[in-house]
Amino acid sequence: MPPESAQVAPAKESRRITFAKRLSSTLVLWGAVGIVLATGHLWGYLALLGILSLVALKEVQTMLRPGKNRWHKTVTYLISLGYLGTSYHHFVETGSSKIEPLDTFFLVLLLFGSFAVTLRKPIEGRATLDAIAGDLFSFLYVIFLFNFLARLLVLPEGGGGTAAPGAALVIWLTAITKFTDMGAYAIGTWIGKHKMIPHISPGKTWQGFGGAILGASVASLGGLAIWGEKLQPITYTHGIILAIIIGIVAVFGDLTESVVKRCLGAKDSGKFLPGIGGALDLIDSLCFTAPVFYAYLVYVVGI
User: Fold this and answer.
1) How far apart are CA 216 and CA 210, in angstroms?
2) pLDDT in tens, 121-146
3) What DSSP string describes the chain?
4) Which segment, 100-114, 156-170, 175-189, 248-262, is predicted with the most confidence on average?
């Protein structure tokens, strides 16, 4: 076989393998989502969100300190698990998304726990403070922000129970966020020329950013056309405004993960989804669009 053919064949094989892995991961992911949608049970949605949250937390912890600070990792996992379990129980029992006291309590508890762990052995200078900062960062970045998707599930607020009144809101937000990525990739690949922030993400262009807003608009207005009744009182005016806001925030969320990975020298956050990457790669934009969407619904729309 000529040298050129020998080089082309592995490349084609690699693309086939990558595509097969990505396809299988996508099918598994959508299969899990389909099961949750079929049951319509609030605990089903919460379980799926909880698994993604904890896996993404593990990925951030591993990137921050691979093989180190086992006690700090353990404290962060346990307190995050307690926060998710307590907030989920609150959502089911009360039907209310207001958990600010829990946010404060578990954040303070994590701070206490992180400092308590440092008492086990001699101080290691700046590394000790870096470990404490890593605990707080990973909790806020993944667990706290992504938990706003769970808050959306109980909007509009009711009296508790197993129903998920805000399921359509979560699906709509997820569609807008993911169509933002798809629009950015499609337009950026097609006509992208002017680099957006090359020192953070060399592949992103301003043309791709325009595609992101276009993709968000298509998903937003299309979702309103399909699920209009389930998304009331959101109007088409709100839909246009939210498409622009969520599109911008989704791009920011993606860039934020790029900053984290570039600082830590990581290509992907993990291997949770073969061919796609880690759980954090899947939810990075949602960690930012969910709280912004929640705030808009509560303070602008008045849900």
Assistant:
1) 10
2) 888 888 888 889 999 999 999 999 99
3) --HHHHHHHHHHHHHHHHHHHHHHHHHHHHHHHHHHHHH--HHHHHHHHHHHHHHHHHHHHHHHSTT--HHHHHHHHHHHHHHHHHHHHHHHHH-----HHHHHHHHHHHHHHHHHHGGGS---THHHHHHHHHHHHHIIIIIIHHHHHHHHTTPSP-S-SS--TTHHHHHHHHHHHHHHHHHHHHHHHHH--SEEETTTEEEEEHHHHHHHHHHHHHHHHHHHHHHTTTTTT--HHHHHHHHHHHHHHHHHHHHHHHHHHHHHT-SSS-SSBTTTB-HHHHHTTHHHHHHHHHHHIIIII--
4) 100-114
Of residues 18 and 50, more confidence is placed in 50
The C-alpha angle 220, 99, 117, rounded to 5 degrees, equals 115
Cα–Cα distances in angstroms (integers) from residue 97 to residues 47, 119, 154, 211, 300, in the given order:
17, 36, 6, 33, 16
Taking the whole predicted model, whether its pTM rises above 0.85 is answered as yes
pLDDT tens, residue by residue, 256-286: 988 888 888 777 676 666 666 788 888 889 9
pLDDT at 16: 67
Which of 226-264 are b and which e, b meaning 16 or more Cβ less than 10 Å from the residue's Cβ? ebeebbeebeeebbeebbebbbbbbbebbbbbbebbeee
Q: Hey, where are the domains in the chain?
A: 1-39, 41-165, 166-303
